Amino acid sequence: MRKQVLLLSMVLVPTALSSSGDSRPRLAQLLETEARATLSAVKTVSADPISTGGVFVTNSSNTPVLGAFPINTSSAELGFLSGALSWGSSAGIESSSGIKGILYVAADNSGVVQVMNSGNSAGVQLSGNSGVSTFSGDLAGAFPSRTAEPGSVMSIDPARPGGLLVASTPYDRRVAGVVSGAKEYKPGITLRGLAEIQGVTLTLSGTVYCLASDVNGPVRAGDLLTSSSIPGYAQRAADADRARGAILGKAMEDLQGSRGHVLMLASLQ
After folding, report:
1. Considering 80, 110, 134, which residue would you say is the last residue of a domain?
2. 46 burial via Cβ count (<10 Å: 0-12, 13-18, 19+)
3. Which tens digits make up the pLDDT trace of 25-60?
4. Percent composition of the chain: helix, strand, coil (DSSP 3-state, to 5)
5. Do 247 and 237 meet the contact criterion of CB atoms below 8 Å apart?
6. Mean pLDDT of the chain
7. Domain of 19?
């Protein structure tokens, strides 16, 4: 079965970039705009084309799922882009929601690969100069446990070596951390994925959204957090003696209301 290749017969022109957001979503938006602008000027060929335009590969529905094409644009955030390769889902790279990966040369002349997550945001970036970057805030590990809501405070399960359970004791010195993934704040790196272990991913380091309560007083930015009597919820650590060995981390924002999520810098103490 012959692969269908689309040859662009026009040269792309600069595209205006949005002034809001960071460079990663704007790059996807730029590719979407360029793809849409040029697909009406393509023709099908049977041989591998050589062109100053660009190339698209389509699926059986004639939707472009891979494209390599020039981009002539310059900005302070993106630098000068002379071209990019993009691949996507069955939705196609005509839509930014269908773009799942981008390969290009950055402003510092290094090769860059970006891979999108299921929410169509940049998840991981590999740069020839700066190495691997993730756009989430924590390093997590998978641990055996019953299902727990993201953001839940977890403790070591004494009846199950290596396992966890939802914390429900104030100032619990077996406290282990917080289940990652609350508010779509996915872990950047996960050690031992859940494909290998039936349980939860627990934040080991970095920032994470934690379920918190004002049961022990208002939670303010800078407060140390510990476990509480409310299953899965953290509270302000007001008793320094009881808090030794029971600290989850430090609140990075005020708790809004009596219960909810608080951004926390994870740091067991």
Report:
1. 134
2. exposed
3. 566 666 666 555 554 444 333 333 333 456 777 777
4. 10, 40, 50
5. yes
6. 76
7. 5-134
